[in-house]
Amino acid sequence: MMIHYMVMIKINIHEAKTHLSHYLAKLKKQGETIVVCNRNQPIAEIRPLPAPPARKRPLGLAKGLFTIPKEFFEPLPDDLLDSFSGKTG
């Protein structure tokens, strides 16, 4: 069994404004969560974003799994087009 401990840093608005770059560095390096408080009452949470993929997603992952029918490219019926523009009959 693996146990993960979530670390949270609680700071008030003044400290966040004064030392934001310091706390963002901790967030980036250690993956901690920052809770921003107003007079010790939590009002916001800052968490790290997931890392972007190391390489681009390859094209054609679903190649051969389905085909698009020719009807897909035909114009939509007028009643359906009217419902998209707010005209209901």
- Pick out the low-confidence regions: none
Give the ordered list of helices and strands.
EHEEH
Taking all Cα atoms into account, the compactness measure Rg is: 25 Å
**What composes the largest sheet?**
3 strands, mixed
Q: Report the total helices.
A: 2
Number of strands: 3
Helix content: 25-40%
The CATH architecture is: 3-Layer(aba) Sandwich
InterPro entries: phD-YefM_TA_antitoxins, YefM-like_sf
Protein name: Type II toxin-antitoxin system Phd/YefM family antitoxin
Organism: Nitrospira tepida
Family: Belongs to the phD/YefM antitoxin family.
Describe the secondary structure blueprint for this structure:
Blueprint: E1 8-12, H1 13-30, E2 33-38, E3 41-46, H2 78-84
Parallel strand pairs: 1-2
Antiparallel strand pairs: 2-3
Family: Belongs to the phD/YefM antitoxin family.
Protein name: Type II toxin-antitoxin system Phd/YefM family antitoxin
